[in-house]
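Propose amino acids for all 311 sites.
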C-alpha cells in the first residue's frame, strides 16, 4: 500500500510561544508516516508565519507558514484547505495544543483501514491555575467519554483527521464564513459531512493536550464558554440546509430551537435543584452546564451570538 500524503493544518493568531510549543511536540512524534505542517497565520502582519519560515530548519518535518489576512477562524481554516489540496489526509489541531507521541498513527489509522472518512479524538486540558470546583465536576472542559471506534455525528478541528477526497466530494467542503467571529464552522461542516453518509469515528487513544491560560480559568470565562457551546449548536441547527424543521432561518426552525433550548434549561435546572450544590454534586454541576448551554440556544434564535473571535 502506498503511504498516504499527510498535511497537518494549524491556524494561529498572535500566540507564537504556544505555536512553537505545538511544533516541538510534533517533532517528537513516533510515526512511520511522513507529513508536512502548514501554519496559517491569521494576523495580517504575518509575524508568526515569518517566524515559522525562519525556524523551519529546527524541525525534522517540512513546515511552512502562510499569512491569511482576512480575519476569522473560518477564513484561516479555508486557507489551510487551499494550501493542502494535493494531500490524501488533512489533520487539524489547535495552536495551543501538544500531541502525544503516538497521536498521528492513532488519528489516521481508521482512515487507512477504510473504517472511516474522518477521525476525531480527545483533548485533555492543562490549567495554568485551578478552575472552579463546579467546572471540574461539570466537565466544562473535558472531552466526552466515548468508546474507541464509535461513530460520532460531528467533530471539532481541535483534533481531527479527514480524508481529503471525501471532504472535497461532500456537500459542505469549506468552512462557512458566517461562523468566523463566533466559532462553530467546524461543527457546521462536520455535521453536514456525516448527514450526507460520511463516517466519522472516535479514536480514544489519539490524545492531544491543550494549555488553558489563567485568563480562561475564571468563572466568568467558563460560563461564557458553556453558553457559546450551546450558541454554536443552536446556530448550526438554525442555518444548516440539510436537516431541521422548515427552511434554514425560518420561524418554524426558530421555534424548534427555542424548544430545544427550553428543554436544556429545564433539565439543567432540575439537575441543579436535585443536586443542591454545584461545588459538591456532579449532578448539580452538570445541570448548571446544561442550563447555560440552553441559554446559548435561545441566544442563537434572537441573533445574540457569542462572538469569541470578534476583533
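Proposal:
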Amino acid at each position: 500500500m502506498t503511504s498516504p500524503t499527510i498535511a497537518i493544518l494549524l491556524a494561529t493568531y498572535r500566540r507564537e510561544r504556544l505555536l512553537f510549543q505545538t511544533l516541538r511536540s510534533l517533532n517528537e512524534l513516533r510515526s512511520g508516516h511522513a507529513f508536512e505542517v502548514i501554519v496559517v497565520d491569521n494576523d495580517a502582519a504575518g509575524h508568526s508565519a515569518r517566524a515559522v519560515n525562519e525556524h523551519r530548519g529546527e524541525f525534522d518535518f517540512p513546515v511552512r507558514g502562510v499569512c491569511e489576512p482576512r480575519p476569522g477562524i473560518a477564513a484561516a481554516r479555508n486557507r489551510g484547505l487551499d494550501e493542502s489540496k494535493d494531500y490524501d489526509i488533512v489533520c487539524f489541531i489547535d495552536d495551543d495544543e501538544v500531541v502525544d507521541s503516538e497521536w498521528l498513527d492513532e488519528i489516521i489509522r481508521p482512515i487507512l483501514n477504510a473504517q472511516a472518512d474522518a477521525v476525531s479524538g480527545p483533548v485533555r486540558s492543562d490549567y495554568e491555575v485551578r478552575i472552579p470546583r463546579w467546572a471540574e465536576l461539570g466537565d466544562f472542559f473535558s472531552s466526552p467519554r466515548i468508546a474507541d471506534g464509535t461513530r460520532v455525528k460531528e467533530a471539532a478541528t481541535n483534533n481531527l483527521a479527514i480524508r481529503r477526497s471525501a471532504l472535497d466530494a461532500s456537500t459542505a467542503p469549506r468552512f462557512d464564513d458566517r461562523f468566523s467571529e463566533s466559532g462553530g464552522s467546524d461543527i457546521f461542516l462536520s455535521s453536514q459531512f456525516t448527514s450526507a453518509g460520511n463516517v466519522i469515528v472516535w479514536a480514544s487513544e489519539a490524545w492531544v493536550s491543550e494549555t488553558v491560560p489563567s485568563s480562561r480559568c475564571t468563572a466568568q470565562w467558563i460560563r461564557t464558554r458553556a453558553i457559546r457551546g450551546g450558541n454554536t449548536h443552536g446556530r448550526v441547527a438554525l442555518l444548516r440546509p440539510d436537516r431541521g424543521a422548515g427552511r434554514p432561518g425560518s420561524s418554524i426552525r426558530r421555534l424548534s430551537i427555542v424548544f430545544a433550548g427550553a428543554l436544556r434549561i429545564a433539565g439543567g435546572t432540575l439537575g441543579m435543584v436535585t443536586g443542591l450544590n454545584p461545588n459538591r454534586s456532579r449532578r448539580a454541576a452538570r445541570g448548571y452546564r446544561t442550563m447555560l448551554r440552553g441559554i446559548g440556544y435561545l441566544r442563537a434564535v434572537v441573533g445574540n451570538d457569542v462572538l469569541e473571535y470578534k476583533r
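The chain has a mean pLDDT of 93. The first strand starts at residue 6 and ends at 12.
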